[in-house]
């Protein structure tokens, strides 16, 4: 368990104000942020392709941090973390295990994941099935899932379109291009700007390309045995996910016994961000099913 907190300090429940921290393990330094009440078992957030600490929707983080300890972190070689970007999703899962167990000292966590973060979370559980107590998988799919390997083409095409329109690529990658989707995309991008101090470093082009190749390998690999995922699992996505096809959320639901599935209408990869007002309380409730609090 982490011992860096001082119980006399006020509890931070706003991601915009979460302190920037680092921890070094074996010469590698992980950048992370944490907020919410102290707990034996925190909720660790696993981020998407190209994401840094600044890419988490504060509306979702803050809703969960009202009652749970939330920890977000940069993968090695990304943002303020040093080291080498892992070439495979399996290696990324190994790095996450090192960060959680050796860096922060936890032997049990809950997981909130999005997109590539969901790939990493699955590999983490397959290798360390007792580490994770509760699991949230959003905008993601299983190893070897149909068309996951096509994410490279989709990503570069949407980046090209965003350059032409002088928009943030996430507006194209995460949201439909109808009136509702465009409005939701702009609102999401604006929320990501709410933090004004200690902003993270953007991902490098080399790191971004390495992550894309890792996702491509993941999509072309043999499926994992997800029967080992026995922990309570919440799966959510939009009904028109172009990056990780929505049918793969349904595939996960079938393969993870007892899982819950939410598909939001008229939304894409970022369906949980478009429907944050509905989804955030659902996720927060799901993640508070077990009392884990030490003090407030």
Question: Outline of this structure?
Answer:
With 296 residues, the protein is of the alpha/beta class.
Q: Helical stretch count?
A: 10
Structural shape: globular
Strand order of the largest sheet: 1-2-4-3-5-6-7-8
The low-confidence runs, each spanning 5 or more residues with pLDDT under 50, are: 1-5, 291-296
* Oligomerization status of the protein chains: single chain
Description:
Residues 1-5 and 291-296 have low confidence and may be disordered. The chain is an alpha/beta fold and 296 residues long. The chain is globular. It has a single domain, classed as Alpha/Beta hydrolase fold, catalytic domain (Rossmann fold, 3-Layer(aba) Sandwich), CATH 3.40.50.1820. Helices cover 36% and strands 16% of the residues. The longest helix has 15 residues, at 89-103. It has ten helices and eight strands.
Tags for this model:
10 helices, alpha/beta, single chain, 36% helix, 296 residues, Rossmann fold, 8-stranded mixed β-sheet, disordered C terminus, disordered N terminus, AB_hydrolase_fold
Task: Give the secondary structure arrangement, pairings included.
Blueprint: E1 20-25, E2 28-35, E3 43-46, H1 58-65, E4 70-73, H2 89-103, E5 109-114, H3 116-127, E6 132-138, H4 151-165, H5 169-173, H6 179-191, H7 205-219, E7 233-238, H8 247-255, E8 260-264, H9 271-274, H10 276-286
Parallel strand pairs: 3-4, 3-5, 5-6, 6-7, 7-8
Antiparallel strand pairs: 1-2, 2-4
Helix pairs in contact: 1-10, 2-3
Keywords: Hydrolase
GO molecular function: hydrolase activity
Protein name: Alpha/beta hydrolase
